[in-house]
What we know:
By secondary structure, the chain is mainly beta. It is built from two helices and 23 strands.
Amino acid sequence: MFCKKGLFIVFFFISNLVLQAQQSLNVRAGFDVTGLGFGYHFAQGGSVLKQGGVGYYEDIGALFTCLQYRFSNIFAVEAGFAFTEYDLGVHDVQYLNRNGNSPSNYKANAKPGQPGYLGAFRDYLGPQFSIYQHIPIGQGFYVYFTEGARLNYITRSLPYVNSYSSGTETETLITQFKPFFVSGYVETGINYYSEYNVNLYFGLKYVYADAMMQGNYTDIATNGTVINTDHVSASGSYLAFTFNIGGCFWQKQKPVKHKKVHFSNNTYPQGKSLPKTTPPVVNNNTFVPPAERNIKVANTLQVHAKQISIEVWDHETVDGDVLSLDLNGTSILNSYSLTQNKKVVTVTLNPGQNSLVMTAVNQGKYKPCTAAILIDDGKTKQTYILDADFATSGSLVIDYIP
Length: 402
């Protein structure tokens, strides 16, 4: 009974997210880079082999592409495919002590073994699934957290043989990789989702998995004497920087009752946000040139700083409203498409009364054009809702008192 109630609550929560939120589909591609592997175990306890390769066997990397479905600006789910190269890099400390070789002299991208240093690699391909949570921090930026799982199928299951012969002794490492394993991952970082639907992620990812590669090592002299042997195992866990970029190719916004606000001058106290009301039906769709439109003053407010910031955004459904803002007859924002992200404009006021006029360029899907306007003089923040159509512009009178 408890489980049924729990499932019902989860279903109700998810269905409300889907039905009420702005939804979008995003295609993304990216990579994990400079992955540091974990979970090395040596039969000789590190007295022969130790973790650390050079050149080709130094780190783990992955390429991935995915389709992300955002329930809202906060929650998202994702599915895609990843191509991962897993590297095993080791070195024989006793060999290096005897021969005094330095890895700084080795080739950077050599696949064959090098004096004292051996390794192995195999490529894996498979689907991955993840869930996202985004926390807004302003101007299209989010801190994000991700948890997911990846199914890894090897592309070539043969043992990997790596060897090096100095003329007096031969080192050999034969490594076998699992043909399939499951890995999980957690990730956090910064997400930027711009008004132009560009989707960027940069973060730190930790991938965790059980042991998935085993290697047997021998160091044999030319006369057949066994100098050293060891066994190494390593997990599929690694820590890496991750970066990906994508874009939105589909977006759906739930049609909701779009509340429009109509004000008269000084109806409400200064500094108070004006209430939302159900709009009357707008019958006048006749286009009037902006310079000839009536100006409707919504409110008069007082500020005490010569320089103020003005923030403008769509406080309800983003439906394609486009507007222009003029201050004392001078354009400060031209043909701007409203989003839920706040657009900030810094302006300088004249002493006394200043006229801020909002002109509709496009009324969007739900008429008239409506925007939230925040006035910040550094001491107080005052928020108002203005509307405008093709016959009337909305206005605020800003009274600057030094």
